[in-house]
Design goal:
The chain is of the alpha/beta class and 415 residues long. It has 2 domains: 2-180, Flavin prenyltransferase-like (Rossmann fold, 3-Layer(aba) Sandwich); 192-408, CoaB-like (Rossmann fold, 3-Layer(aba) Sandwich). It is built from 15 helices and 19 strands. The strands form 5 sheets. An 8-stranded mixed sheet has the order 12-11-8-13-16-17-18-19, with helices on both faces. A 5-stranded parallel sheet has the order 2-1-3-4-5, sandwiched between helices. Strands 6-7 form a two-stranded antiparallel sheet. Strand 9 and strand 10 form a beta hairpin. The longest helix has 22 residues, at 387-408. The structure holds cytidine-5'-triphosphate (CTP). Cytidine-5'-triphosphate binds next to helix 13 and strand 16.
Length: 415
Amino acid sequence: MRVVVGISGGIAAYKAALAIRELVQAGHDVHVVPTASALRFIGRPTLEALSRNPVTDEVFDDVASVRHVALGQQADLIIVLPATANTLAKLAHGLADDLLGTTILASRAPLVLAPAMHTEMWEQPAVQANVATLVSRGVTLVGPVAGQLTGADSGMGRMAEPHEVVSAALALVDGGASQQGTAARGALAGRTVVVSAGGTREPIDPVRFLGNRSSGAMGVAVATAARDAGAAVTLVGANLDVPVPTGVEHVSVETTAQLAQAMQALADADVVVMAAAVADYRVDEVSAGKRTKESWGETPTLQLALNPDILAQLAQRERTNLVVGFAAETEADDAALLERGRAKLARKGADLLVLNRVGHTEGFGDVRTAVRVLDASGIVAESRGDKVSVARDIIDAIAARLAAHDRSNPTEEPR
Ligand code: CTP
């Protein structure tokens, strides 16, 4: 697919590089059109190297080919990230005083904008009126989100993460049919999927908790891949360090008990994925007031109680749906690692188990990961790479399993 990536002049322009790289890696033909001010934030060589195409902001370069018309007419999708307040205003009024403006006006392709600006600017009635105008004309906005802004301040106005912008934009065009793998071709269309992600926290007192290092990135990537595959997705997030993707329902939980309750309520989804790192133990007696050194003494002990195994409960109930677990193991020996995975799958009673190795740093928040997907018969899929592509492979394995189930139960209603 031919994608035009417009970049306007805000500090978030540097993040456009990540979106361009993701689009190119997914096999798209990417043409970057920065504004003149965007080029003060990010260099043309970077954009040319990543997009593998020439980059100009000039309407008067390559006039013989009528560049803006060619770019606009041939585009299948236009994404502008970041979209500044100035760019939103220009687009709302159809101004065409640079290559980006002319390209957008010369195109009938879907237009996706990722606004980024300070909270005060975003909340200005003028900006909001421009946004309303653009939305009423069918333009798609992704973000902004609340978070850290350029200075020390934080609030609404931060650009959505580049990956979020790219996946929302691709999902818009042919339901994401341009992405690779069956996950992108609507393999889960009509299915409901529930994914737990993050790590549960068990309170010790009002200010302290027992927790783990899970960021939620893997589970969120699985939820995103399921959404891109056409499923209606609910993400049950426990203390997520990563943003919730657009287009999924979000239930926020903190403790294992809350996670268990949320998952039980959603247990009848076609696919239930337990990617959350669940605290195995909770503090037996949570102190109502803050514990002090005086009340705790020199060598305090915490009495812990075993938490319920949510995955086992979900898997061992009477059901016809697909239940998928995750196992992060520190076992160095490969055969022993696989054996632990097989034993865990059997013990919990899940249909599939996604097995990966973690260390003190390996696996947690890492960009790259390697997993194997097991069923009762052994390894059914293997994947290695960034969490986004691994998540797509996991969704492919899940979709294949559902399809096999449908083939062997032709009379049953499709799940
Ligand atoms: N899990 C769960 N409830 C728990 C513990 C784990 O639902 N109380 C789920 C996790 O979400 C994951 C799978 O079970 O999908 C495996 O998690 P893991 O921590 O490896 O399982 P444990 O049973 O805690 O095994 P171990 O004793 O090896 O830690």
